[in-house]
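Tutorial handout. Part one gives the primary structure; part two gives the three-dimensional structure as tokens.
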Amino acid sequence: MKKAFLLALAVLAACGAAFGQVVVTKSSQAGIGVDIEGVRAGGGAARLAYQALGLDLERSGWLRRAARGQGAVVVQGAIQEAGGRVTFSCQATMNGKPVLQATYTQPAAQATLVAHQAADDLQRKLTGKPSFFLGQLVFVGVSGRTKELYRADASGLAVFPMTRDNSISVKPRFSPDNRFVSYTSYLKKFPDVYTIEWQTGSRVRRANYPGVNSGGAISPDGRSMALILSKDGNPDLYVKDLASGALKRLTATPKATEGSPVWSPDGSQIAFVSDASGSPQISVVPRNGGAVRPLTTPRNTGSTQNLSPDWGKNGLIAYQSLVGGRFQIAVMDPRSGQSRVITPPDGAAYEDPSWAPDGRHLAASRKVNYQSSIYLLDSEGGAPVKLIQSSGDWSMPAWSH
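Part two.
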């Protein structure tokens, strides 16, 4: 009976109209063609930058990399390495008319940044659209029984460790100003919430109350932190004032568990996961407390499990939704309640979505045969693209803002 129910649920979810979910697809050839074959790159760091430039174009959604002589836009110039720095001087023309002429320079250790700066400028001039190219990623790497935080730029070509605790660190999230990453760590044997400074690596333990400490989402104004604490019983949602340390409890559900808090873009609401209805679903509550409003239900999403919300600056909430026995990534407009699945039925599970800075793309972990990788998703369609190139077991990605 249970199998029959799940099968029926999967069929209805695939139909979409029954629950307001649809699957979005888009031609991989969409976008303005950009020919970069005329760019010369000399030296290892320069070639790495050139590789990053090509990846930016391939992943843009608005632009695409074109073969020699096949692009409406032609980029010429040179990426050179000298004196510990990389310089990219370029000129771009569209149908013979100049659209960009600029020089970018960065330390050789940040060579890919010259490519990201050029690609971002090019996309803005050609389309008026922001990019995710200048964004940063933090995520979890698994090795044996340990989970550490790692970081990478938008190219994903190089991965660097952030923690070396020989412990378990999970659920990283950037602060609104990108100065800090908040996360939950078992460094002291129990789950506590920390922040780690992006530039220096210095850490502060923000929540170490008795019992479970998790969440750690920093409000848009940087003054408060949404936490899940079990110090008064079951895990409930709290808001902590970071200056005074004062706590305000927003939920009191003695027979339920809350988790995964995330702030609305204006800081007036918090979305979180609760199993108070009998299955994990996403609800919202005013940041100062008040009535809890269910956001996802089996009826309006076609799924008995909806978790890991991320509320983007575009006003949309991305989350993982159980569809056909596997988690997929869905996007919902919380104002209308309409949702759509954006990942393909390719046999993989997709979890822990995070909106990229451009408001169009997301990062998520893609799991096949118990091995996870970080993939880039396009909310407007198209196939998922592997984002982190290094081999390893990577999960729980978070984009900078």
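Part three, for discussion. The chain has two domains: 2-25+136-399, 32-127. Residues 32-127 form a domain with the Rossmann fold fold (CATH 3.40.50.10070).
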